Amino acid sequence: VTALLFAFGLWGNARLADTFRDNRRTMAAVNSQLEDSLAGARVVKAFANETEELEKFHASNERFKKSKKRYYRAFGIFSSGTEFAMSALQLAVIAAGGYYIMKGKMDYVDLVTFTLYVTTFVTPIRKLTSFVEMFQQGWAGFLRYLEIMRTEPEVQDAPDAKILTDVKG
User: Fold this and answer.
1) Quick one: pLDDT band at residue 58, thresholds 50, 70, 90?
2) What is the C-alpha to C-alpha distance for residues 64 and 79, in angstroms, rounded to an integer?
3) What is the pLDDT of residue 167?
4) 36/42 Cα distance (integer angstroms)
5) pLDDT tens for residues 7-44?
């Protein structure tokens, strides 16, 4: 069960990373479109383009909702899957312990001890599972930051531009 939990954690972590990055890109696009619309509000009013701007907003809002829905779905699958595996681990210990108690090969004190061992083993995994969401959001934001910082500007210096050396003011 522990091997399955580990494999599921790796698979889920990779899936969450993709979902978080997609979510950040979608949020950036929505924020950019919204900022453009707000900055150009006077132009929109001057040319009576309110309906078109509202349609743009609804389209970007739908993209945002779909992205959030994918995010919540991926994290829900990850959380419930890890919780299921951890519960299955405890169930396996109790079932095997009950079997060995019935056969007379184990004492109930040993079963309680093994159950406590499993609880001690599972507690940090639960903490890591809750930490994964925060880490993935931060990592996706950091990768998005790097992506933006590596973007080449559209406006380039002329080939014969002179470098400013002694700038004041």
Assistant:
1) confident
2) 22
3) 83
4) 11
5) 888 888 788 888 888 887 888 788 777 777 777 777 66
For residue 15 the two structure tokens come to 């899936």
Cβ neighbour number for residue 132 with a 10 Å cutoff: 19
Whole-angstrom CA distances from 99 to 86, 106, 115, 118, 149 are 20, 9, 14, 17, 60
Which amino acid appears at position 134 of this protein? M
141 Cβ contact partners less than 8 Å away, ≥ 6 residues apart: 24
pLDDT digits (tens, 9 = 90+) for 81-128: 888 888 888 999 999 999 999 999 999 899 999 999 988 888 888 888
Contact 34, 60 (CB under 8 A): yes
Would you state the pLDDT for residue 44? 66
Residue by residue, what is the 3-state secondary structure of the chain? Answer: CHHHHHHHHHHHHHHHHHHHHHHHHHHHHHHHHHHHHHHCHHHHHHCCCHHHHHHHHHHHHHHHHHHHHHHHHHHHHHHHHHHHHHHHHHHHHHHHHHHHHHHCCCCHHHHHHHHHHHHHHHHHHHHHHHHHHHHHHHHHHHHHHHHHHCCCCCCCCCCCCCCCCCCCC
